[in-house]
Amino acid sequence: MRLLFKQRFLSWFDSYDIYDEDGNTVFTVEGKLSWGHRLEIHDAQGAYLGRVQEEVLTLLPRFALYVGENYLGQIKKEFTFFKPVFTLDCNDWVVNGDWLEWDYSVTDGAGVEIMRCSKELFHWTDVYTLDIPEPRNALLSLMIVLAIDAAKCSSGNG
Known about the structure:
Elements: E1 2-7, E2 15-19, E3 25-31, E4 38-43, E5 48-54, E6 62-67, E7 70-77, E8 85-88, E9 94-97, E10 103-107, E11 113-119, E12 127-131, H1 138-154
Antiparallel strand pairs: 1-2, 1-12, 2-3, 3-4, 4-5, 5-6, 6-7, 7-8, 8-9, 9-10, 10-11, 11-12
């Protein structure tokens, strides 16, 4: 499954549209007024699926992940000098990024790739391509990319 993640150009808060390979909307993401980033995810019909909520008053960016109203876990940025490292405390998944903070892969505990994300250059807004072998992993993969993008924005790198 391939998803195209596009930030909307004219939006007061962070808002994104996520399309499949055929250009059909799969998810929409709406930023909400909140202390820290709060990104609500909806399906193509507008049904609420979950949210990514920044936890404030932390030294490094940290985000709680919710499917519906159920807490799934958190993703947080670790202190490093050269290569960005994010830890995810659910599903035994590992997030690996490149030093430019443009490309990421997510693997399970056995090293099997769950998702690969690449930032496309030369666009007015953030555009990412997500390659997800198993469609059942699409929502959590999207949440990871949203959290990383918001963390980059919070640190001034976005």
